[in-house]
Amino acid sequence: MSDVYPFIEAEKAEERSVNRACALLEVSRAADYEWHQQPSRLAQEDRELAEKARAIFERSRQTYGAPRVHRELRRQDVRCSRKRVARIMRGQGLAGRYPKRWKKTTIPDPDPIRRLRT
């Protein structure tokens, strides 16, 4: 289906009706405009930042979370916010490890004096 867009482009270049070309080829105008869309500057920067964040994450043996990855990016002179790094990492499914919760293993005696008396 994507091979019809160059024909619509040719119609547009010859200053003919794009509406008619879209109707004849059974393509919506919105699909034609979407085909022309280039990724925004922000989307391109996010993609580059995602690659760098993933590299840092992998180098840390998948332990660094967004704050540490952000700190490493800042050390590499990459300007971005911590929240942006967190959003990008969340989008890639990357999450840092955190320490296990401390589990209490001993139970104190409720009445230690009573034991001494007997």
Structure characterization notes:
- By secondary structure, the chain is mostly helical.
- The protein folds into two domains: 2-36; 41-92.
- The protein is built from seven helices and no strands.
- It has helices at 5-13, 18-25, 29-36, 41-59, 66-75, 82-92, 112-117.
- α4 packs across α5, α4 packs across α6 (82-92) and α5 packs across α6.
- The longest helix has 19 residues, at 41-59.
- The radius of gyration is 29 Å and the shape is elongated.
- The protein starts with a helix and ends with a helix.
What multimeric state do the chains show?
single chain
Category by helix and strand content: mainly alpha
* Helical fraction: 55-70%
Strand content: under 5%
CA radius of gyration is 29 Å
Order of helices and strands: HHHHHHH
The biggest sheet amounts to:
none
Distance between the termini: 90 Å
Shape: elongated
Brief digest:
This protein has two domains: 2-36; 41-92. It is built from seven helices and no strands. It has helices spanning 5-13, 18-25, 29-36, 41-59, 66-75, 82-92, 112-117.
Write the layout of secondary structure elements.
Elements: H1 5-13, H2 18-25, H3 29-36, H4 41-59, H5 66-75, H6 82-92, H7 112-117
Helix pairs in contact: 4-5, 4-6, 5-6
